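> tool_call: predict_assembly(chains=two)
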Amino acid sequence: MDQLGELMSAILNATSVDESVIRYLKSTDFSRFVVNTPWVWPLAETFHFLGLALLFGTIGPLDFRLLGFMRHIPISAFRVLVPWAVTGFSVNLVTGLIFLVATPDQYMSNVSWWLKALFLLIAGLNVLFFELTQKSRVDALPAGADTPPLLKMIGGVSLVSWFMVLVWGRMLAFLGNAF
Amino acid sequence: MNELLVTLHDSSLATWVRESSSLWAYPMVITMHTFGLAVLVGASTAVDLRVLGVARQIPLGSVHGFFSAMWIGFWLNAVTGVMLFAADPRTTGIFMIKLLSVAIGVLLIVLIKRDIVGDVYSSVTTPRAKAYAVLSLLMWVVATTTGRLMAYL
């Protein structure tokens, strides 16, 4: 894993981060407010963790049903939880942007952040594909029905990518320049 | 620090977690602690929401899988939590509040399960189960908040 860290640092060095973006974000009043107000960061972190739990707790069951677990419950029942997952995600998007604007260099120069962003993108595209193309198919599946391979794949990709978002989010503090 | 905590602090496992530069030591332990939180608090929150009337299409008596997830998350965090505590055994007030809120949260899991699981087709909840669910959500907010604040206070 430590060798992996070195490899990723090399990858990061190859990707150029736009310094003017970092400079601009740091120059905003909001960025200065977050950095200079001691309670904002811990409060935002707390909400980031609560949002994480809500997101995992409401998207996880749907993913497991897509994989074929808990077949006695129709998939449409789990889809009712999706707005709650969106709520958790929104809390984390807002608090995440607060961190990013406050200390952009800490993130944009950190290989963990780019990996987290990559898995966020995969998770997002996966959700989008599911919502746009599989909705009617899923709602037609009754309780007790197994899921076709494509739905199993969507559930698996979702579980793995959200797990990786969490892992690389936590690793932000330990890889690259720690804070 | 009392004698027991000193022994804990100086144990080889605690020393490894605290002092190893490997990403498998402190970084991976705390990452798994966060994952355990997501599984335990996430699954418990989902059941609490269901008890409070969200997603009524999910039969209440059939959410065994959610409870299995909660216990997996709980044990993952009990183990990683002991490792993190051993590495830095400070019995601060905020840590005690965290432990107490986790204990009450876990007790509420048992109480809620006793109230709802059994009748597979049941879709109504008792006012008592709803009170447990509200208290459960509150305990997880307290546990997560105090856990997070331990990094700053």
